[in-house]
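User: Okay, second chain of the day. Same drill as before: sequence in, structure tokens out.
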Amino acid sequence: MPTILEKTDLLRLAQTLADREERTVSTLDGLNVNVTSYVGEYPAHKHPKAEFFLVLDGELDLEFKGRIVTLSKGESIKVPEETVHKPSARARTLVMKIEPADFPFEKV
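Assistant: Same drill. Structure tokens below.
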């Protein structure tokens, strides 16, 4: 993790990740800033707190009760707490996520 006053090239770091790998790059007031490499489908799930997604490269589909929101490079979305969502990516997609450091995952 970077130390104080060091910049981080999130896109470059994300490009070094293996498929489906996630790495915490910073913490702030109980929140993790993660970069994640999405590929394929993930199970529908929810969390007790909100989650923020920002696509760095590629396209990420988020399904919400049959409605699909597609995020492209540079687009973001906040997923409210207790909202069932199902991420998927047809091709490798690099995402920055901000979420609580203690973040349980409940499949539904």
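The first strand starts at residue 22 and ends at 28.

User: Thanks, on to the next one.
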